[in-house]
Design brief:
The chain contains no helices and 11 strands. The chain has 147 residues and is an all-beta fold. A hairpin with a 2-residue loop joins strand 6 and strand 7.
Length: 147
């Protein structure tokens, strides 16, 4: 893996023009027209993401479509809700759809904030259309499920 050419910019310096997922890593490209340069970034979605609010909520993405949601109680993960997820990488912000194994669904918008944070707005009732159209979270990437 090569070294970054420069420090990450938040958000991306221009609109992302294309994106694809390769082995659980989102790869996006954009063009900086003024500088006549094309750029690329690769960010992983697979792994555990934690939201620290009143409780610690964990979202885990794996195997390209597997999803699990849980709440940390001390060092114990409880209230788990496994399911599957799908992402529309062609829209900005990205569109997230979660279908839990119990049949319930959750929809969201998300974007990467740097290389280790997700900004998410989600709703169980309808697909959000803006950042104020549901429950707002900022998830931090975790190496494991212990904060």
């Amino acid at each position: 893996m090569g070294a970054p050419m420069h420090q990450p910019v938040t958000p991306f310096p221009a609109s992302v023009t294309e994106g694809a997922v390769l082995d659980g890593i989102w790869v996006g490209t954009w063009v900086e027209h003024e500088m006549q340069q094309a750029r690329m970034a690769a960010l992983p979605l697979d792994g555990e993401w934690a939201y620290q609010g009143i409780a610690v909520i964990l979202w885990a993405f794996s195997d390209g479509n597997r999803f699990n949601q849980g709440v940390l109680f001390g060092n114990t993960l409880g209230d788990e809700k496994p399911g599957e997820y799908a992402v529309d990488w062609g829209k900005r912000p990205f569109r997230l759809a979660i279908k839990y194994n119990d049949g319930t669904r959750r929809y969201g918008l998300f974007e990467f904030i740097g290389h280790n944070r997700l900004r998410v707005v989600s709703s169980a009732e309808k697909r959000p259309s803006s950042w104020s159209d549901g429950d707002y979270f900022e998830f931090d990437y975790r190496e494991n499920n212990i904060p």
